[in-house]
Amino acid sequence: MIIRPMEPEDADSVVQIEKDSFTQPWSRQGFLDAMRLPENIMLVAQEDGEILGYQCTYVSFDEGELTNIAVKKSARGKGVGAHLIRCLQEKAKESGVERIVLEARVTNEAAISLYQKMGFVNLGIRKNLYEHPVEDGVIMSYTAEENLC
């Protein structure tokens, strides 16, 4: 499996994974627009020519916001998400990003557990953050300094 920058040619595969993963998926155009901003960190996990997962992080100055991360259902539980996050953390550091924040549904225990294993800490709960269904969101943050030995 390789992790590489997301390209416009990946949009159809990424959108399919997005639709299979979220109740309010981003559009193809949303991904293409995000790719046009060179400061953003947009990565895909690929194996044998197949896109297994992706992540999108918007970058503003020294902070990144992990807006989207998803793995194809058939590839879940195989370390794809962890590999994407590890590569994001490396690229963020190279780009001068000091902190990465994200939101997750409070019921998405698998994602929250993965984020914690990858060094993210819980900052709090945002009430009624999500729709379809209405649900609270947990806000998490990663700062490289928090994870020094």
TrEMBL record:
Organism of provenance? Agathobacter rectalis
**Into which family does the record put it?**
Belongs to the acetyltransferase family. RimI subfamily.
Q: What does this protein do?
A: Acetylates the N-terminal alanine of ribosomal protein bS18.
* SUPFAM superfamilies given in the database record: Acyl-CoA N-acyltransferases (Nat) (SSF55729)
Q: What is this protein called?
A: [Ribosomal protein bS18]-alanine N-acetyltransferase
**Can the keyword Amino-acid biosynthesis be found in this entry's annotation?**
no
Give the subcellular location: Cytoplasm
Keywords of the record, alphabetical order, are: Cytoplasm, Ribonucleoprotein, Ribosomal protein
Q: Which Pfam families match?
A: Acetyltransf_1
From which domain of life does this come?
Bacteria
